[in-house]
Amino acid sequence: MIIGPRMAAVVLAALLGAAWTDLVGCGDRTGLYGVAGADRPGEAASASGGLFSGRASRGSSGSGVGGGRSSSGTSSRSSGSVSSRADGGGASTGSGSTCGVTSGAPPPSCSAGGSGLTGCGACSESCCATDEVTGGTYYRTYTNTGSGPTAEADLATVSGFRLDRYLVTVARFRRFVSAWDGGSGYEPPAGSGKHTHLHSGRGLVNAGGVGSYETGWLASDDGWVAPTNKNLLDCGSANTWTPSVGDGESLPMNCVNWYEAYAFCIWDGGFLPSEAEWEYVAAGGGQQREFPWGSTDAGVANQYAIYGCHYPPSDGGSCRLAPVGTASSGAALWGELDMAGDTWEWNLDWFAPYADPCVDCAQLTSSLFRVIRGGAFDSPASYLLPPYRGGRYPSGRTSFGFRCARTP
């Protein structure tokens, strides 16, 4: 018997112990399937596309919150200290985003100048600025309403790495499209894109398979990389791509599938962050913040996050993406901007219940969806919370962007 995508989604939902509803977003003609967190029933789909989402993380709980500490019953969390540098961009020297000096050779996507390559953020710095993240331990599932984390579960340990300060811009992605050259140019080498600084070069541990590690790029995935004008303009009014250089070069690149995001990061000298790495940064490590910037309400003035159709403020809620770094007060602990809002971000992992414990792990066993995180320009505030998870077919092209991680 052939199982179609809707039935497969329902089967997966049953396995995850979640109640499903159809969420269909405007601008997405494929039809997505999603579930809001059990503690927030009935949340509407965002216009950036329906998605499999929610705060559910464990197969035994629809909400994924409440109970469940490590086997010792105690937490050994990171201090959240900051030790940062930047290659081709500003260095963060304290909590939140600060301006720094350029050091090291920029990656290929920023090897030239121009809008969307330089002049990003309040510092008008390299759009390839990258921040060094100090490793530590935290809980992936928690609740924080401003007075500290509670209902902690799903302990994870993350080693130090670097994460790009900004979402990949249109201008940076344009350079990758040129290198790809209509399919006759760049292709990621088989096995590339691994976290080679971990486990003696073997990369992340596969949380879904005993004794296995990252495979890196698969040659069989080459055919999924097709950043043509037709494909990159297939997301309706939310598109940020233009066939030629225009006024939106500093906007976050969207309408890319998971394979193209991964291929870009490999070409640019990095890799996609694991879900545990991404949330670790968004949560402020062991601080497990309410929002990436802290506990200040997100508001509607776009200073902390671009969400809820509040941007641009003078345009009557027309729902547009903002240039990267516009929400300059929303920096995460190590300096990263737009970790909440503007565009969803692809992560490396397949979407699955968390495996405990997790020490430099990722869910690498094939499933239906790849993880997306962070919410988007039209998302409700609840999607901005660091523990909030989403999933999407890896071939999907709705309003999803990404940022790259790098070796420390």
Rg, Cα atoms, Å = 19 Å
Please give the order of strands in the largest beta sheet. Answer: 3-13-12-9-14
Number of domains: 1
The number of strands is 15
Number of helices: 5
CATH topology: paralog of FGE (formylglycine-generating enzyme)
How can the largest sheet be summarized? 5 strands, mixed
User: Class by helix and strand content?
Assistant: alpha+beta
Helix content: 10-25%
Oligomer: single chain
Known CATH architecture: Alpha-Beta Complex
Give the SSE order as H and E letters: HEEEEEEEHEHHHEEEEEEE
Which CATH top level class fits?
A: Alpha Beta
Distance from N terminus to C terminus (CA atoms, Å) equals 48 Å
Shape type: globular
Low-pLDDT parts are 1-50, 55-94
Description:
- This protein is of the alpha+beta class.
- The protein has one domain: paralog of FGE (formylglycine-generating enzyme) (Alpha-Beta Complex), CATH 3.90.1580.
- 11% of the residues lie in helices and 15% in strands.
- The chain contains 5 helices and 15 strands.
- The strands form 5 sheets. Strands 3-13-12-9-14 form a 5-stranded mixed beta sheet.
- β1 and β2 form a beta hairpin.
- The termini are far apart.
- The N terminus is likely disordered.
